[in-house]
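Subject: for your reference before the review

Hello V.,

The reviewers asked for a structural picture of the protein, and I figured it would be easier to keep everything in one thread rather than splitting it across files. Below is the amino acid sequence we used in the manuscript, unchanged from the supplementary table.
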Amino acid sequence: MRKTEAKELLKQARAAWEAEEWLRSADLYERVLEHFPDERPSAVWWYDAALAHKFLRNWDKALDLGREAAARAPRGEGDPAYWNLGIAATIRRDWTTARAAWAGFGIELPEGEGEIDGRFGVACVRLDTDGQREVVWIERLCPTRGRVVNVPVTGGRRYGEIVVHDGEPTGERVFRGTTCPVFDELELFEPSELPTWEVTVGAGDAADLEALLALFAEHGLGAEPASAVRMLCACCSEGTHQVDREVRAGAQAVSLAAPEQEARRLLDRWAGEKAIGRSWSGLARPGLARPGSPGGP
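And here is what came back from the structure prediction:
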């Protein structure tokens, strides 16, 4: 291939990129890279081709091209080529490459080999389930994976599942003075076996409801009052929002993440701890008719 032909293909690749024709853009870049893999600007071509396949969720190609992009990127300087490689390697469960990518980016990892299971703080992820979007809190296990610690209200999503998220924040949430980024979900990495239930609880005061939430948390399970769910439009969701977890007295719906028998046992225990002021009824799966028999005193 002559350089004049390569210049024309690169021009077409950039035009396709601007039009968000990711596959065409990547194909054009790859045609040039077959002949000019190590030109001075080739690191950008490798990066753009890998990124295009990331947008397409073609993780095998994103991984292969990402390796080439990272091989031409400076180490320890936060170059995004390493971040995108880390994402693709994580999704493909190539832990050796993932660890090398995060180190190349400049992130210190827990010592060891294989899957990364560290403590990288908390963040929010915007789940995307067939067009239904919901922002939930996660505990970050690595730079791109996190465990969901809310009980999602979106059907099919569960407390405790592990998701892979993108690296560029698309919003912020402020909770008790701490600002946390919101990342977009890329893929469900590991599902959760904990089913979701809905129950109506009666709480004499806010402390009673707090005690219920704490009881489930102590057992590694989830409990989320309906008052904690806030509806935002897509545009507003990408802004900065103060998060206030409203816990109030009275009757209200609570979403639970637990095996059914364990949920009933803990609800009974909670209700039985006070003679007056705590009750529950109608434990059922979301969307199903609830039985009328109450539980607790």
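For the response letter, the relevant points are probably these. The chain has three domains: 3-105, 122-190, 196-295. The CA atoms of residues 43 and 295 lie 64 Å apart.

Happy to draft the paragraph if you're swamped.

O.
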